[in-house]
Amino acid sequence: MLKKTSISYFKYRKQAERSIKAGVNDIKLSPLSSDLESHLNEFNRLRNWQNHIPESLLTSEISLVEEDKLLKRSKNPIEVFYYKYVSLEYFKDLYITSRNFYQVSRKIHQSVKRDYSLLINESVEIRRIFTDKVRTIEDFDAAKKSAKIQGLKSTE
Question: How does 54-64 read in b/e, with b if 16+ C-beta sit within 10 Å?
Fold first, then answer.
């Protein structure tokens, strides 16, 4: 029977830490620096924030509209703005944010690999395999099955 749960690296570490504290001896975790632990916590908060439209975002946007720092939107029709141009400052901020995100992601990925190596009791090796095989619609079967288990409506 498949479970209706998922586990992130953040959740895996929390569950493993609880098990270790409860006396389970066959679970090992690599130590995390306080900096990396902070990044992992922040990634979890960012994931939660980006997957939900928080009230704080709406409140912030209303405040910026009132200060004439954000374009006012009509209620109907709904207007979606597509910008042809961005300022250098905007582009620079996007670049720096993306670069920093990538650097932290790499550190977390290395930690995931260390913990996975401890879990399987051998050094993990990741190989990039390029293939000429055609990717077919059947490659989505696992994702569709997962969505069904989560109670999501089918897109078929």
Answer: eeeeeeeeeee
